[in-house]
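Take a record:
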Amino acid sequence: MGSFTNRLIHETSPYLIQHAHNPVEWFPWGPEAFERAKFENKPILVSIGYSACHWCHVMERESFEDENVAKRMNELLISIKVDREERPDIDGIYMSAVQQMHGHGGWPLNVFLLPDGRPFYGGTYFPPSDFRGMPSWLNVIEAIADAYHNQRETVENNANVLTNALVVPASDGLSDFTLDSTVAQNAFSIIASNFDKEHGGFGNAPKFPQTMPQEFLLRYYYRTGSNSARDMVEITMKKMASGGIYDHLGGGFSRYATDNQWVVPHFEKMLYDNALIASLYLQLYTITEDSTYRNLVHSIINYVGRDLKHPDGGFYSSQDADSEGEEGKYYVWTLEEIESLLGETSKIYRHIYGISSKGNFEGKNILHIAKSLSVSSEELNVEIGKLSKILESANTKLLDERNKRIRPTVDDKILTSWNALMLRVLAEAGFTFDCNEYIRMAEDNAKFLLTNLYKNNRLLRTWKDQKAHLLGYLEDYAFLANALISLHVATFSHEWLVKARLLIDQMIELFWDHEANKFYDVGYDHEELITRPYQVFDNAIPSGASAATEALIRMHKLTGVKDYFMKAETSLCGVAPLLSRYPLGFGNWLKVLELYLAETVELVVVGDPQIKLTKELVSPLRDNFFPFITFLGINPKSNMIFDTPLSIERINVETPTAYLCNNFICELPTGDPLELRFMLGL
């Protein structure tokens, strides 16, 4: 291949830069590409992917690096490359179009547009030659160009139909729906019917973690006492931790498993997945006090801190599935490698981790717990304690050896919303474990985001190489506001509550539509697209709207401001009928519904958070699962006090004191940790 450089060389996204030396004359998304398409009268290709996407790399190697294919693309099309992680608005619009056409989507996403931005055809991966009913990429683009020039009426009709289907109505007519516990009950029943009783998870392969429906199940368990709700979560999360989706050497979880037993992962590791999974394990730990869950939280945070952390406190987006051009090469092992490294102990290791000469992935082995320690102890006649030490030593040896391999590429752009998810779990883990290191990591991350990605009174989306750009989306504001509220709990610092409220107020101003009575994903100051995106479903991460609703409820419970509550209630009413019908697609909404339905209980603790008595007063929240309690910490030494009825006349107490309240009406204060536990029903 010759030496080429296209317009993507000036971008900051690693995914776009990966394509900067393709012979394809790629444009970044922007007016230049659309103006060129109009001037040259050509259809537009919008090709959307992300850095850790395996099939994106495959299509690049097969087609976009091929000079002959690129030549025809340059002759027939105006080609635009988009990083879906930077531009979820564009991805969301055109993914919906492809789903309208085919009933499914995925990445790479390849969509063909008229010069005005309306889609008329699209798909996902296309092979270099015809294969199993899929047309070759070259045949596709030839047919697209022919249809554009010679069947224009059909193309225009397709574009009109697709675009009309994408336009979100001003009102969905659901705002009068009554919110009550029957919605949660119906959702629970459907989730239970989709549960895999043997392997955990929901539905068939491929299997995704689906943390948000599980968070709902834990809250449903808390409210109703349903052990089956809790059991579904425990079974799933134990099976995941035993499977190959979990990196048993380096920590962290892959995106999903290609099988229904969690053994064979799609090896890419995403920051958001690991943040959400760590949060779920943390909640399980507070319910069960099972050290296995605590250790998994530590393992995930250690992975993120080691492999995805910027020196200044931000977190990178992902780690690739591929290394040296092969999917999973970094993670898999041959039997011979295991025997050579471990010697006599390899027999035990093979027994537990399911190592064989045949392997379980293209002739090699993905590490997974094939047999538990208790079963292995009995079958091998080795006590569990000794087995644990053998495994610990063996895993250290294997990790040292793995570290000599070429690592998968890290996508080192820093996204506000994904960082906020990690910030939140760091704050909550720091609080639960009383771990200053995690709290420091959370504070460093908050300072990084607010220093580098908040400019000119506007939150931005992405940062890399000292450059922040792209207007922040609803999810950026909502996730960060929620994270800062949690950071207050861990630190008692009212600075974080002040900033959280500022973000929430700006969020309402930018994204709330007073006619439609809902949040849109992009602000009123965003560039004009063919429709204003509104993502109602919770997908791999919570939808911006569900996270915004959670932030509104949490801030209402702190401040008593009715407008926050009314907007949250309106948002919930708008989606409530969907929650009962499609609960697995509305997991975070269901979690928020539980928060909405819960009795309002506040706990105020006044005292220096670093002294023993204050810690003892806070300990009930550290040691137990209280998903619905609103907490306010007041440090008398602080010169900043958040404006809330909960803080009035409670600043100047002489010794650490706790106030248990209901709708801002408080019981008599106590400085006795045992009495507080009694008041909390413990």
The first strand starts at residue 27 and ends at 28.
